[in-house]
Prior knowledge:
mainly alpha, 0% strand
Amino acid sequence: xxxxxxxxxxxxxxxxxxxxxxxxxxxxxxxxxxxxxxxxxxxxxxxxxxxxxxxxxxxxxxxxxxxxxxxxxxxxxxxxxxxxxxxxxxxxxxxxxxxxxxxxxxxxxxxxxxxxxxxxxxxxxxxxxxxxxxxxxxxxxxxxxxxxxxxxxxxxxxxxxxxxxxxxxxxxxxxxxxxxxxxxxxxxxxxxxxxxxxx
Length: 199
C-alpha cells in the first residue's frame, strides 16, 4: 500500500480515537452527575449511560486506538527515517502518555459499569483536559517538526484550560447564588401570603 494511503488512514483513526476519548469522559461526567438524581430518574439515566459508554468504548474508541496504532507502526516500518528525528521521539512519548490515558479511562469505564463512582464530575472535567493537551502537543509536533516549538502551543492550551475551568467554577457559583436567591425570594413571598391568609 502507498505510504500516503497509510498516513491518511492513520490520521482518520487518530481523529476517531480522540473523538471517542473526548466523548467517553463526557459520558462519565453525566453518569456521575446522574448519581445525585432521585429515583427512578437515577436508575434510568445510569442504565442508559452504561449502554452508551459500552457501545462507544468497544465499537468506536478501542477499534480506533488499535487501527491508529497499526497504521502508525506501518508508517514507521515503511519510513524508518522518522525514528531518527528528535521531534518524533517527543511525539512518541506523548503517544505513550495517550495509551496510559486510554488505559485509565478503561479503568473508570469498568468501575462505572459496576456502579462504583469514585470521581466527582469536576475531577472528570479536569481529566478530560489531559487528552486535549496531548492532542495539541502531538499536532504541533507533527506540523512544526520541531522538538522545542511545540512547548508554546501546549503552554497556550494549558493556560486556556485553566481559564476555562476558572470560568466554569465562577459561573456555577453565580448560578447557585441566583438559584438560592430565587428560592429565598419565593419562600419569603409564600410566608407573606400565608401570614396574609391567617390575618
